[in-house]
Predict the structure.
Amino acid sequence: PSMPRHANRLINEKSPYLLQHAHNPVDWYPWGQEAFDKAKKENKLIFLSVGYSTCHWCHVMEEESFKNKEIGEIMNKNFVCIKVDREERPDVDKVYMTFVQATSGGGGWPMSVWLTPDLKPFVGGTYFPPEDGVHRVGFRTVLLRIAEQWKENKDALLKNSQKILEALLHRSEIHVQGQESPPPSKEVMATCFQQLSNSYDEDYGGFSESPKFPTPVNLNFLFTYWALHRTTPEGARALQMALHTLKMMAHGGIHDHIGQGFHRYSTDQHWHVPHFEKMLYDQGQLAATYSRAFQISGDEFFADVAKDILLYVSRDLSDQAGGFYSAEDADSYPTTTSGEKREGAFCVWTAEEIQALLPDSVEGATEETTLGDVFMNHYGVKETGNVSPMKDPHQELKGKNVLIVRSSLELTAARFGLEPGRLDVLLQEGRQRLSSARAQRPRPHLDTKMLAAWNGLMISGFAQAGAVLAEQKYVSRAAQAAAFLRRHLFDPASGRLLRSCYQGKDNTVEQSSVPIQGFLEDYVFVIQALFDLYEASLEQGWLEWALQLQHMQDKLFWDPKGFAYFSSEADDPSLLLRLKDDQDGAEPTANSVTVTNLLRAACYSGRTEWVEKAGQVLAAYSERLRKIPIALPEMARATTIFHHTLKQVVICGDPQGEDTKEMLRCVHSIFSPNKVLMLADGDSSGFLYRQLPFLASLERKDGKATAYLCSNFACSLPVTSPQELRGML
């Protein structure tokens, strides 16, 4: 311990992922000019390794290869080695991932790419084992072969890399074709619904066999589809698909029944055995989706799951200053004396552990029964473990159990002769005790980087849940996080967002020496968050900031020739391509969300050019939306909002008045995908009245809080009772 450990340049970085590699024998550089200059000066190839701190195979490759002295020597002698955290630099990740996917037919992390000194990729892959195996070439062999090629065939390599770049440019272009207009929403919605319906798993919900991802974008699409087709069999099916999926996920092992929140994805068809990392962007989107499920169905079950997610985030992913951390890792030490980490160790249980923690006999049960028996029956716990060896290739979960709700409360209660209410209390007691026992285990690594985009998604989760569940504390938490963004991830002098900041020493918030500027997704998710926060809090300051950011987004990222927005800015010479994402995946793509943002912005500002821009984005993606809308369910959803025109729900009233609050509660209780809410408080000097002169003509009827439904700034007759308003909505 007294010997200072060897450290490379990553020791000066702030990203937890880069810091994990700071003591490797590899002479890592961060992405930047110093590394590029060295490659040019020494005429060396660059080895680029991209990952993130909660990526299981990234840890494996580090243990096997990057900590190996001999492999480190080969890397240092022949290459300039660069390490990138994809969550800090999604732009760099996207350029080279596009290359890896195009040339190898697959992609993923860790991503390993070899570049010429001028940053052009010529060969790439993902994880490499250290030594040659029967089916795979080892990392050492690949390194030596590539170094050899560079010595022998430099010119051919350079020529080839130029060709590859031109092909990539051609492949990855999304632009409007001729005079294309936005695709018709009826056709896009019908096709998307059909494609989702065909891939739906009738038994367990979700949209693939395995692995199964939560994909909130699919569920939000189905809710909107239902709202527009409530009386048809297709509409009913859309709602049933979404609610059943959300139920099965909440019962599954992908949901942490002891520590709350959701894991990343399920490795099987039953939502049972997950990859155990927990990502902020999943929690934010799922909190909003479960709130919406409650709003539509009135079933408290969904409200409870939303509260459970927000409890987890408030407790485990929240910085004192108000921001949200990025993720919790899947791997951890099983005990305080363990030498190596195992996946899921923090979350899994043996039957013995549970019996020992819950030995109490249960009064009034039909036979001699302990609390442990009841708990194990309800959560599918088996003496020999409940994880199939097929789903546990590294035998890390042998003999362990991942809790999964196997039957309803009523069924478990009947089996033991108990009242469902009493069983609920017993299970709660069981979860409480397991939670206390789990608190003694070493915690998984926490990625304390705070990203503007993901914080935006989480603010939306808190704001929407607060509005729908009528929980003021959630709205306040969202406002606290928005104030954090304003303070730490926004530069008032330039009006621009920053990508990331970090938890520093003694709970301070730190910035890297050269701050990373915000990307398109940072603007889009933060703007969406501010609109959601305005609707939940009716504080006009958030609206004003959202519209400023929308102007800045237009300036930095809009493509005036091909339409839609580029993912990154124009002035970074180290980026070979400016790309536009074309898939709504674990997170919606920024261009999808921006369509709805632009329409909302137009409603709050009266600027019709934003409606025009929304149409131009849809036009640029028109072909994809017509053919495979299942790749863009969030944009398909936005297509209908564009064609149906947003309705402005204006409540004229005193913000503190009981009658106003009652009207607002009514608005928040109804799922209506194409409405925006605004409060006309009568203060004609306020931001909204300055933006929208027509508000001045709306008045309170008989001095009571009054609602108007307006479209294109023409309004319905006034209503003053929540019942009438409900009918209108």
The mean pLDDT is 95.
